[in-house]
Amino acid sequence: MARRNYYDIDDILAGQERVPCVLRADLDGLGSAGSGGGTSKVQRNARWGLPYWMADRLNEEDYVDMEVSPVFSKRASRMYAASPESMQLRAICQHFYQFGLQLGDMVPEIPHVLRNMYVQRVYKVARIAQQGQNVEALDFVQSLDKTEARMLKLCQQAQSAISLWHKNQAYALKRAAVVAAAATAGAGS
Amino acid sequence: MLGDEAFRLAKEAKDIAADHIPAYNEEQVRLVTQETRYLWTRIEEMIASLNTAVADQQRGGSSQTYPGSSQPYGLPNQQKQSQSQTANTQQSAAQAEIENTNAQTALYFLTLNRNKRCLLAYHHRRAQFLRSLLWTLHLASSMIPASLSLRLSSEEQSYARDYARLNSTYRDAIENQLCPSDSLNWTADGELPPRDLFIEVRVIKDCGEIVTENGVVNLQAGTQHYLHRSDVEHLVTIGYLEHVNPS
Lengths: 189, 247
Fold this sequence. Notes:
The complex is a heterodimer. Chain A contains 9 helices and 3 strands, in the order H-E-E-H-E-H-H-H-H-H-H-H. By secondary structure, chain A is mainly α. Chain A has 2 domains: 9-30 and 37-67, Ribosomal Protein L9, domain 1; 71-166, Methane Monooxygenase Hydroxylase, Chain G, domain 1 (Up-down Bundle). Chain A has a 3-stranded antiparallel beta sheet with strand order 2-1-3, with helices on one face. The radius of gyration of chain A is 22 Å and the shape is elongated. Chain B is mainly alpha-helical. Chain B is built from 7 helices and 5 strands. The longest helix of chain B has 60 residues, at 77-136. At the A-B interface, helix 1, helix 2 and helix 9 of A face helix 1, helix 2, helix 4, helix 5 and helix 7 of B.
């Protein structure tokens, strides 16, 4: 697996997704916010949903038993394969693809699931970006996860850039976005 | 949950867009660093206790390897057995304790690293935003709009100033070497290739007089001029002039 960028915010956010775990050792202070106490008792054999960044490493050391997240269970994968376009990815997991990539180390089938899903859905994303939004597309747009939503935005930007170019306005100089935002904020207040 | 505070910082870093930056969250940064320091002291404590526990166990273990030498000869066999049994349960309890402490040290250490990553990513992302902002503003840190500089910490403001200064020293050095008699346009927008040499601009804010190749031009608000693109490009980006499109 390719090394992930240490400073990648999306990667950090995706790592916060919870995975179900069974603790093999007492992990007191797990639930506390840190400096407050660290006295709360957490006994072994308890079930906890731990953030992936924590669960993965503790699993390596055998302090917890990590289970496959329900987002990528066998049953869910069959559902994804059946109708990729109708899945409500945003509701299932906001960082569906990023999180899937992180889990890919553990479950070798996940990359295939992700790939099938993405290839089928990205066509629709591109089509919506070209046709403009309509009521039918709205449902689908609301089901996009963060990666796909970014893709849609990029497609739409490219689309509007083409129409600007057709109108011979592509070479207009504009003031910087920050300055424009500051000016409108100043006018508003 | 451990690490939640740091996660909040990462989410805030995600909100940074090309034209917007949330205010520097000093409070949250302090919370995270505090938690991290606390975790570190706990880790040190736990490692110290682990070391003593392991040393204790080794002493206990060595005495057990030679039971005959430490036991008096006349002791009945049964008593000997029960003694070693209690020793065994004691030892397994100690073993479990060590394991727990091990697990907890690992947990705290992971959280510590996670906090560090979130903190660094937060500041890295903000610095990145500052640099790209400076480049669009033609590397003049004084041009940062007031509404934005309010949201920067004092360290970030001095970073912007130092970055601009360092950059101008570097540019001067390069220009001296390559073309001592000419100056280069460093901040030209590479993604937008120039098409016309001359452009029509309308003045939005008074800029006074500027000197161009063809003489002095007085840029008064409301007037319109046909000028060399490279002469006024920077004034358009900072919003003093407006590019009027030939349509």
